[in-house]
Write the structure tokens for this entry.
Amino acid sequence: MDGNKNQPIQKDDNSDEKSTSKCWTDEEFESFLRKELEKHPLSKEYPELFATAPKLICKWRQRYQGNPSLWKRLFQKDRVLKEFIESVPVIDAVQRLVVNSELFKNGQKFTIVDLACGRGYLSMFLSELLPPNKVEKFILVDQAWPMHNMTPEPHHISWTHIYGSSKKVEDQSVPNYYDTWPIRLNTCKVNLKKSKEISSMEERLFTNYSEGPVILVAVHLCGTLSLKAVELFNNNPGVCFFCLKPCCLPGMVHVKRDEIFRVGEHSFDSKLVCMAGKWKKNVWRGPPRKVTTHYFQRWVDNLLLGMNDADAEKIKKTIMVQHTGGYQNDFLFAERLPETAPVWDVLRQEEELLESE
């Protein structure tokens, strides 16, 4: 698939080596990150978050002092900054929602579920950023985590940066990192393509309304995983807020099966959105970009139509997180009523400007 998650990341000289080196003070490291982020045009649209991000990453660096091999594995400058930039509209919306919530007056807190999270960079940023008195925990969902009673193996995502020695890790001499996160991060191994595993997750995470509502975030979901994310929002009233950034298109296997995609009360032919293609030796082997862009727009539009809005407000936003030929700049947001005005005032801002012109 022509997905940005699979695109090669361009390295520049030896910046990662420098930034993991002990020779840099925290101030120098933070300054280096700030200059890198200022290069992106989106920094002018989200100035506060772009100014804050270097401080948050610097906190990670401080957390892993004494474990240079872990930090070097976790921090690849291009990768981490890309993760932040492409998540910043979600970070902004979630922060506005949480900060303006008064749930804590009733003794409730949010739980944030991060679907197909990879190493969990989005939740790591949010844990450092959000007020702990309003968020109970993060649930980092990915099929590549180990089971909770296992030591990570080479084919797993290592959770050492999340737990440290509070769980079984490859090197039990590392510190207990779990207790150092301002808001606790918890991993959850779930294959989102298996209905039984999804049902089990729903029962565990989405049905205990007394604990407080759930915020569901899903960034870079590949193929039909975006359908699964929309279904989770539709089927679980406990999810009060939903953010989705789709990634690559579904593959041609669905067309060969003559499948009709159904999500919510909406259905559409897989032929409208499925496409073949993949990266091979850093070269895209597939249809030209103008074709994949057209298919991707149809994909996102159909996902939006599949989001139930009988009791919710929803919107599609195009936010230019990719500026070097990427086309995956669409975000879907939904909130069950009543809506949070500081969130939607910002999300509707561009639409209001267009209507007034």
User: Anything to note?
Assistant: The longest strand covers residues 214-221. The chain has a mean pLDDT of 90.
